[in-house]
Design a protein that fits this description.
GO terms for molecular function: DNA binding; DNA-binding transcription factor activity. The protein folds into 2 domains: about 5-65, Arc Repressor Mutant, subunit A, CATH 1.10.10.10; about 75-245, GntR ligand-binding domain-like (Four Helix Bundle (Hemerythrin (Met), subunit A)), CATH 1.20.120.530. About 80% of the residues lie in helices and about 5% in strands. It contains 11 helices and 2 strands. Strands 1-2 form a two-stranded antiparallel sheet. Helix 4 (about 75-90) crosses helix 5 (about 90-115), helix 5 crosses helix 7 and helix 6 (about 115-135) runs antiparallel to helix 10. It is globular, with a radius of gyration of 23 Å. The N and C termini lie far apart (about 55 Å).
């Protein structure tokens, strides 16, 4: 971890400990560096990093102010850079999907074995929310409901480690779902297939069939991987054809 990243973590802890609020001014640079036990150049670098992300703001001659509270910092510092990588690098997107295969195959298995009636009701709730938002053309809300559907399955596993892993990856999962839906759900047939796949996962959990639940969720994720890869290849072919048409003298 870079020194500036370590300083950012210390700043986050200090803000939380001192119960500072949005709009509050940070202590003066000398005092802040002493409190954190760091050099002033390292502090300046970390503050500039946070200012560039819109988390802090600097007012000349008046100090540095808090624009966003620490609970949003992980989204800004981790998920947003990763989201750019996911959007720009197809291989990274597929790596995320493959990691979901490993993790969610296990959560679905244990959800089928251990879920309570309340757990299953929550899974059904998010399934209904996905359908509602999709029918109203709200892709962003549908992506949130979709990610919550998968998280609810993890919570139904009653395995603390699996739940912690899924929660820690929630923002990344949500963005991954959003990218997948952006491509796949543009096609009505695919949208119907994905809805049916979600139903198959939910139904297997309702029936307490662990193997069917694992197979269904892995089949769902594999379908998205294959379909998005196929769409990416089609887009690449279309771009190549467009470039060739532009340089064709005839």
């Amino acid at each position: 971890m870079r020194v500036s990243d370590q300083v950012v973590e210390k700043l986050q802890t200090l803000i939380e400990q001192q119960n500072l609020k949005q709009g509050d001014r940070l202590p003066a640079e000398r005092q802040l560096a002493t409190s954190l036990g760091i050099s002033r150049p390292s502090l300046r670098e970390a503050i500039q990093q946070l200012i560039s992300l819109g988390i802090l703001s600097s007012r000349r001659g008046d100090g540095t102010y808090i624009q966003q509270l620490p609970e949003t910092w992980s989204q800004q510092l981790i998920v947003e850079p990763i989201s750019h990588l996911m959007q720009d690098d197809p291989h990274y997107r597929f790596d995320v999907q493959e990691s979901r295969l490993v993790l969610e195959g296990g959560t679905a298995w244990y959800a089928a074995l251990r879920s309570t009636e309340a757990d299953r009701a929550k899974i059904h709730q998010y399934f209904d929310e996905i359908s509602y938002h999709q029918a109203h053309g709200d892709s962003a809300a549908a992506a949130v409901a979709d990610a919550n559907f998968h998280l609810a399955i993890a919570e139904a596993s009653h395995n603390v480690v699996l739940i912690q892993m899924m929660r820690s990856l929630f923002d990344l999962l949500q963005y991954n779902v959003f990218l997948g839906r952006k491509k796949v759900y543009e096609h009505p047939i695919s949208a119907d297939l994905l809805s049916d796949q979600h139903f198959q996962v939910m139904d297997a959990i309702d029936r307490k069939d662990a193997q069917a639940a694992r197979d269904a969720v892995c089949g769902h994720i594999e379908f998205v991987i294959d379909h998005v890869r196929s769409l990416d290849e089609d887009e690449a072919r279309q771009k190549r054809a467009t470039r060739l048409n532009r340089i064709d003298p005839t």
